[in-house]
Design a protein that fits this description.
alpha/beta, D-Maltodextrin-Binding Protein, domain 2, about 45% helix, 7-stranded mixed sheet, two-stranded antiparallel ribbon, 10 helices, Arc Repressor Mutant, subunit A, 13 strands, about 325 residues
């Protein structure tokens, strides 16, 4: 139904309820002339008179009464329906669909969701973690996270924090196999590799070499498509691996992992949050975005400064040298 016909019917019903075209115009926020014109257009469209009108009175014709009886119930239903999304816009409740990468983001998203759900228990998160780059519209996502800006057109992307790729090993590995002093030395070590879940391709390590980001192919002693399992293998001392700062930062700060070749850490990528226009978002989506930006924008929780990396590497290498030094006679 064209919107001018709907407006004309609303004017007719309001005039019948209030018994005055002038009061109906005031109730709708339009001029009396516009209300009169809308009613005249409706009568012309229907080919009947709906009101007996004088300068002082307004009363329904028989046809007008029949039309009111038929039009009023569905119009009230439509008005109630229009209130549903308006209430949803203002209430922090209902479903919240979030998408993000599986390999690098589980630790980040859980702490964020846990805090959000404590604050807003009426929200029902629906979280899909997947390493493929999906379509924001087809996935029906309210909020998305990915490494790099959003791929979909018409989506707003905001940088949250840098994503480091850190080569690291457990103290137990260094005790048994020593530490490489250069990228070339890695050929003599047991290295892990990550296999892309969506293609099956083994990813080369990405390292910084003389200021440029280069691919470094390693012969994997251990290979998996699950970063959490790769981290477990590194923590167990089985391999040296390259993992993200999201996975490694807490272990390095606690001394469970030692960064190796810190000068070659790649830091050219970043985690972004993406979303549609904030002005059209329901309150629950706006609240989640606000929390995500407050907690994650420029966060140092998952990012190690180069000073931290250098100190942790030096400490780990000193401990390894002390343990591996021959005992004095």
């Amino acid at each position: 139904m064209p919107i001018n016909e709907l407006r004309s019917i609303q004017t007719f019903v309001k005039a019948a309820e209030l018994g005055s075209l002038r009061r109906a115009a005031a109730a709708q926020g339009i001029t009396p002339q516009a209300a009169s014109q809308a009613l005249a257009q409706l009568e012309q469209h229907l080919g009947v008179r709906l009101f007996h009108r004088t300068t002082r009175s307004l009363s329904l014709t028989d046809e007008g009464q029949q039309f009111l009886d038929a039009a009023q119930p569905p119009l009230l239903g439509l008005q109630r329906a229009l209130q549903i999304p308006r209430r949803a816009r203002d209430e922090i409740a209902g479903p919240l669909r979030v998408v993000g990468p599986r390999s690098t983001f589980r630790a980040v998203i859980w702490s964020l969701l846990a805090e959000f759900c404590r604050k807003h228990p009426e929200v029902q998160p629906d979280v899909q973690l997947d390493d493929r780059i999906g379509n924001w519209v087809e996935d029906r996502a309210d909020v998305g996270f990915r490494v790099g800006p959003a791929a979909a057109d018409g989506v707003i992307a905001r940088r949250l924090f840098g994503l480091q790729l850190i080569v690291c090993a457990a103290p137990a590995y260094l005790e048994r196999h020593g530490a490489p002093d250069s990228l070339a030395d890695l050929a003599e070590h047991r290295c892990s590799a990550f296999r892309l879940p969506n293609t099956g391709r083994v990813m080369p390590w990405q390292v910084k070499d003389e200021g440029a980001i280069v691919d470094l192919d390693v012969v994997p002693a251990f290979c998996t498509n699950e970063e959490a399992l790769e981290v477990d293998a590194i923590l167990a001392g089985e391999v040296i691996g390259q993992v993200t700062g999201v996975s490694a930062a807490a272990h390095i700060r606690a001394g469970r992992l030692v960064p190796i070749l810190g000068r070659h850490v790649a830091d050219h990528m970043a985690v972004h949050v993406y979303y549609g226009s904030r002005s059209a978002q329901p309150a629950r989506v706006r609240a989640f975005l606000d929390l995500a930006i407050e907690r994650l924008a420029d966060s140092r929780e998952f990012v190690l400064s180069f000073k931290e990396l250098a100190a942790a590497e030096a400490k780990g290498r000193r401990a390894f040298r002390r343990r591996s030094a021959p005992a004095e006679p």
